[in-house]
Amino acid sequence: MPSVANNVHRNVCKTGRTYSMPDITALVRATVLLTLLGFIQPGLAVSVEVAGRSLEIPAPAGFVDGAILPAEARELADSLTPATTRLLAFFVSVDDAERAKRGEELRWDRYMLAQVNRSSESHDISPEAFFQIRTLYTEQQKSLIANSPVDSDTLLLMLAQDADKGLRIGESAPFGVFSEDEAHISMSALTRHASTKRQRPSTYLVASGTNVVLTANKVLFTYVYTRFASEVDLEWSERTSRDWTQAVIAANPESTALGSVNWQRLFGGALFGALIASVALVAIALRRRRRSAG
Fold this sequence. Notes:
Elements: H1 2-13, H2 21-39, E1 45-50, E2 53-58, E3 63-65, H3 71-79, E4 85-93, H4 94-101, E5 110-117, H5 127-146, H6 152-161, E6 172-181, E7 184-194, E8 203-215, E9 218-228, H7 231-250, H8 263-268, H9 270-288
Antiparallel strand pairs: 1-2, 3-4, 4-5, 5-9, 6-7, 7-8, 8-9
């Protein structure tokens, strides 16, 4: 794309040039393509404040800010946010937004949450400190997988054969870390929930991507949820987590080389425990919520 645009620009700027039909065709094609690119804008971002610092949370592709929905939708998002954690933004699919406009019930097949831990949001976290956080999350995931009664491949095979087997209601299966760099760590899981409807299916599965993100020296928690019908949905949650995480990082100022956190206090006291607990608390809130299985 850049080379096409540059070539067109050079040709247009030449003086005394007579353009043949191929030249005009190339110019028209490039102009149309550049015009289309002008209309392809990323999803609108939600502006939030974390300890007085303004941050942008971009809407994931195909999703919109849940603030446009009726109050009941906000109440549901709030119910998934423990008291120790503050909801920054939530996003619903364009399909659900259209249902809301028509006065129909939302399906909540896919949605996203962005949160911050209340006890840590006032602290700046350096990249070096975040490396330690990532290390501990990695160890936590390894421990969860080691203690899981069934490995992920076996579980997916079981579910492909019978969607009602493999997990009990309220039980989660960790799939471990699927993406990581100096500014984020992402983990996936599969959880079975009870349906509030009496007709079958009496339960349903949710694939989730949990992302711990360092941006502008703040640690954010973003969650991607999708109704699980096959391994494709798990792959979607992981792919969407990667894309959204990078969008959040890119939308905000780069982290400074040094934060203002006291490492000994962070890793020896309640602050780090609060960061780790944020993930577990959201998972508990999700299991407790009452949602239609659609």
